[in-house]
């Protein structure tokens, strides 16, 4: 009975570790998610709004062109871990160490065939939980930009066009972008920023589907479930675009893409559903965020849809 109690205690502790944690609860969860078409694994050029550049996507459905073994979200050239001691063997070792710390050791401290089977079951279960924890934090981690074009320099245009917010967004398309972005496009980007936050605050997946790609909606839905697992909800209010500029815009396979750096402010608060009290953020103090948002449309005249959010590199 004592061993059973210790085992259940260990499982409960690991289950708490597995509860999803959002570094920031606003739309996108403070992570980099989505796709940029064929440029998903290339770094967008730095801009005046985001001079430090963007982090690579740690959640994406786009497969890298090479190598074939790379997984979505991995830097090109990175190889998935293989081998016994790199996966299951390491989990078994970790499970044995946890068992030793809990007092019953790697071999369970018992005798007989039944004790050995019980030990193996415990080690396997704990090892599985350890692997899930490692995979969870690797997936949620925001690593450095993947290998790709580096050293982009911001090249201001002679007559930048501004829209929205206090600072406005400047049309500063890089020379290698064949797609021209009009003032109406910038207005659509700013409006989508507000529409995404409004639908997120209502937990309205249908509203999100109207302004974001299915891939992005799936990430929003997962983040909302993560919040719900804690019995929390996040609301962002009075979203204002403070400054923004174009990183790059291009066309491929009948679709137009535009990656835009945006600095925006808002009232960002996370509530406990049971008490309706604020557990993170504030309903009175504004916060700021700078992100690179990528939009896609089905050719000229199509509606711009959010296809990716990238966090900026630390300054």
Automatic annotation (TrEMBL):
Residues 1-25 form the signal peptide. Coiled coil: none annotated. The keyword Oxidoreductase does not apply. The keyword Membrane applies. It holds the Pfam family Tim44. Keywords: Membrane, Signal, Transmembrane, Transmembrane helix. Residues 26-76 are annotated as: Disordered. The chain crosses the membrane at residues 84-107, 114-137. It comes from the Bacteria. Gene3D superfamilies: 3.10.450.240. Residues 165-311 form the Tim44-like domain. This is TIM44-like domain-containing protein.
């Amino acid at each position: 009975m004592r061993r059973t109690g210790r085992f259940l205690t260990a499982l409960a502790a690991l289950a708490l570790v597995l509860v999803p944690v959002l570094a920031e609860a606003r739309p996108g969860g403070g992570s980099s998610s989505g796709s940029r078409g064929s440029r998903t694994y290339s770094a967008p050029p730095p801009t005046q709004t985001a001079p430090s550049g963007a982090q690579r996507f740690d959640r994406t459905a786009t497969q890298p062109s090479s190598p074939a073994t790379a997984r979505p979200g991995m830097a090109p050239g990175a190889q998935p871990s293989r081998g016994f001691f790199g996966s299951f063997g390491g989990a078994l070792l970790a499970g044995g160490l946890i068992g030793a710390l809990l007092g019953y050791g790697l071999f369970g401290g018992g005798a007989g065939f039944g004790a050995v089977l019980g030990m193996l079951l415990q080690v396997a279960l704990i090892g599985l939980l350890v692997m899930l924890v490692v995979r969870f934090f690797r997936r949620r981690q925001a690593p450095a930009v993947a290998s790709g074009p580096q050293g982009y320099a911001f090249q201001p245009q002679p007559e930048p066009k501004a829209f929205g917010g206090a600072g406005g967004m400047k049309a500063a398309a890089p020379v290698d972008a064949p797609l021209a972005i009009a003032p109406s496009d910038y207005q659509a980007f700013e409006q989508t920023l507000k529409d995404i936050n409004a639908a997120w605050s209502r937990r309205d997946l249908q509203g999100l589907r109207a302004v974001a790609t299915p891939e992005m909606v799936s990430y929003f839905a997962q983040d909302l479930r993560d919040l719900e697992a804690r019995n929390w909800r996040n609301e962002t209010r009075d979203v204002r675009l403070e400054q923004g500029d174009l990183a790059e815009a291009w066309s491929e396979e009948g679709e137009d893409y535009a990656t835009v750096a945006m600095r925006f402010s808002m009232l960002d608060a996370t509530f406990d559903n049971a008490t309706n009290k604020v557990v993170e953020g504030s309903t009175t103090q504004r916060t700021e965020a700078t992100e690179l948002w990528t939009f896609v449309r089905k050719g000229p005249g199509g509606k711009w849809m959010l296809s990716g959010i990238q966090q900026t590199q630390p300054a």
